[in-house]
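debug: dumping io for the single-chain case to check the tokenizer round-trip. Nothing else runs in this session.
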Amino acid sequence: MSNVFFLHIPTALLGRWRSEDDYNSAEYEIIVEGNGLKITAVDANDSEEFEISGVEFTKDTIEFDTMMPSTGRLAHLSLKAIAG
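debug: decoded output
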């Protein structure tokens, strides 16, 4: 018999995301890794990878910080799953 653990991960937010804003060319990928989330981000224009830190999540939100090494630009993102 196996043990099943519910991780309270907002599965509706898993996947690859891109802003529809013409100014923002960031692409984010959110996957389950181990008992948490792994978030990667890349600039779609030049493939530069963001540094990701401060990842926190609840059953319906994901929050994290990004930093673009070439510019030092910092951002805090908060994603919330909404009823469809």
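debug: round-trip ok. Strands lie at 15-18, 26-33, 36-43, 51-57, 61-68, 73-80.
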